[in-house]
Amino acid sequence: MPKEKEKTKKQEKKQLRINIIVYLVLRFLVIICIVEQSLKGNWHGVALCFLTLILFTLPTIASKTFKVKLPTTLEIIVYLFIFAAEILGEIQNFYGIFKHWDTMLHTLNGFLSAAVGFSLIDILNRTERFHIKMTPVFVALVAFCFSMTIGVAWEFFEFAADRYLGLDMQKDRIVEQISSTKLNPEDKNEPVIINNINKTEIYSDNSQKITTVEGGYLDIGINDTMKDLVVNFIGAVIFSILGFLYIKDRDEYQFIERFLPVLKKFKEE
């Protein structure tokens, strides 16, 4: 037993070193980005960099506030997720350069949110003061619902930012086909389908042409929102299944613990 404890402590120290190295490297890269954006006069980019530095402190704040232990794997993924979304995605325009960058992040968000929701219920399930014991299926279902709630709330935030702050977080898309009842000449509740749209011309109130959208019709965020929710769903389902299997056999699926925050008293035990 003493040898096992000593081995565990060595592993934890090694993981802590890796965690610190990743944190410092990413923080250093963000500081470089601040200098770069300042020289370019891009103050919006500078603000995003400072926001990223603030978000980097969230794992530590959550750990101290809620007295939970975040596994090294989960904490590193959170740091990389924040860096990938804010610095690479927004400032370096990876959302535009790499077609599936946003899809990857939303899938990961669904997975991680389900892990957090799963942990909350699993902690209650293992607490003596909580007398209701939930079945593995119910815990997995709650984890799934928690993840989807987070995903929907984020889409609400994106819509509000686009609507009231003039941003494009929903990332508009060009489509070649539309189907709408608004185009029905007789005002019937029957959609008119237009295929093979090759361009859209946009005019102002005084009939002055503003711009031409080449390649089709400009979809205002609907496709992006639904795609984000679908991949969030996929990520949530994947973790919910793994979480269910973990409760059924914690030894066989012990690797799941790399993504699960736990109460520090459980960790000590």
Structure commentary:
This protein is mainly α. It contains nine helices and eight strands. The protein has two domains: 10-169 and 223-268, no CATH class; 173-219, no CATH class. It is 64% helix and 10% strand. A hairpin with a 5-residue loop joins strand 5 and strand 6 (209-214). The two termini are 14 Å apart. The model has no long low-confidence stretch (mean pLDDT 90).
Low-confidence stretches: none
Our count of domains comes out at 2
- What is the succession of H and E elements? HHHEHHHHEEEEEEHEH
Alpha carbon gyration radius: 23 Å
State the strand order across the main sheet: 1-8
Q: Look at the structure and give the mean pLDDT.
A: 90
How is the biggest beta sheet arranged? 2 strands, antiparallel
Number of helices: 9
Strand proportion, as a percent range, falls in 5-15%
Fraction of residues in helices?
Answer: 55-70%
SSE-based structural type: mainly alpha
Shape: globular
Number of strands: 8
Distance between the termini: 14 Å
